[in-house]
Specification:
- By secondary structure, the protein is an all-alpha fold.
- It has 2 helices and no strands.
- The longest helix is centred in the middle third of the chain and has 83 residues.
């Protein structure tokens, strides 16, 4: 009779250990899925930030191009004004502009 109780206790212990192992495995799987979801969220945010940064870079390049064109136009107007102005010696001007 004693051996039956030992066998029953061992079987119950194995079932309990199996249940604990199964629960631990499910918890690890759940944590892994949570980390995957968190990583996916971070990637989506990174992609959105990268898109905004690229858009800002393109806008900055466009603005820089506009500024260069305006600067060139201003220099051309200044040059024409200097050519027209009788008080400005156009021949000495290139040395002064540098």
């Amino acid at each position: 009779m004693e051996t039956i109780w030992i066998v029953v206790i061992v079987v119950v212990a194995l079932v309990v250990i199996g249940g604990i192992a199964l629960a631990a495995q499910k918890r690890r799987e759940q944590q892994t899925e949570e980390r995957r979801e968190e990583a996916r969220t971070h990637r989506e945010r990174a992609d959105a930030t990268a898109r905004r940064a690229e858009q800002a870079r393109l806008e900055a390049e466009e603005q820089a191009d506009r500024a260069r064109r305006e600067q060139e136009a201003a220099q051309e107007l200044r040059h024409r004004a200097d050519e027209i102005d009788p008080d400005v010696d156009v021949e000495d001007e290139p040395a002064q502009r540098s």
